[in-house]
# Entry
Amino acid sequence: MASFSIGLSLLSSNMLKEPRRRELLSAEGRRILSLLEDRPFADNDNVVDNAILKDENGRPYFSDRRADFNISHSGAVTAVSLVRGNEPQAGRSQKPFLRTGCDVQIVKARASTLKIAESFFSNAERDYIFSQDKNEDNEIKFFEIWTLKECFLKLKGLSVFDMQKAPPFICDKGSNKGCFTFGAAVSVPLSFYVYELQGGPDGRYLLSVAIEGDEQPQPVIRWFSQSLLPIRSIVEIKAAASPAETVSPKR
# Structure
């Protein structure tokens, strides 16, 4: 049976001031992955060990293919998504038939928000983000869309430079206009989950995770730090070969 885990960790305020903060966040991702998998891994992202390899795009994967993972960090938060249950199957390619992607971003005002949205987001996505006068909700909505696109790209082994390849996540037609959806046909079920983390030492965060595969277990969230943040599910999107099931924001 497949399982889907989200591991989270929050650096302390003192660690945030460290000049090696990014290295600490990266090492924290490996630590969380080791604890989720109950096996040790090299503590340097640039090191390929016997258990973790990298594909032609630089995306890390387990050499035994029995699970798939993704790591993201921003601000003081590290996030790891892990799907387990892959087994070799006759006739399948070497790629795992369960895949995951995750992206976490600290919510903060950026001068480039509008420019990014104009360059990479659909009209419906821009309408969703900027439907009211500029306020904090606009920033939250921007990062909802951004993290959804990022976790999809990371699931596929692509990067932020491939942002134009990410489908829209807001419906632009019919009775579902303005609702969350996955704007592309799928042959394998694909689910997205968006969470809001509040009360961190440097603000709030948006976290999006995705899972692709014939099995679609619900994610289980686990914290791996002494401090944790209140976390709230705000969006769920389920895409399948039949019409997609969408859960709108839970505000």
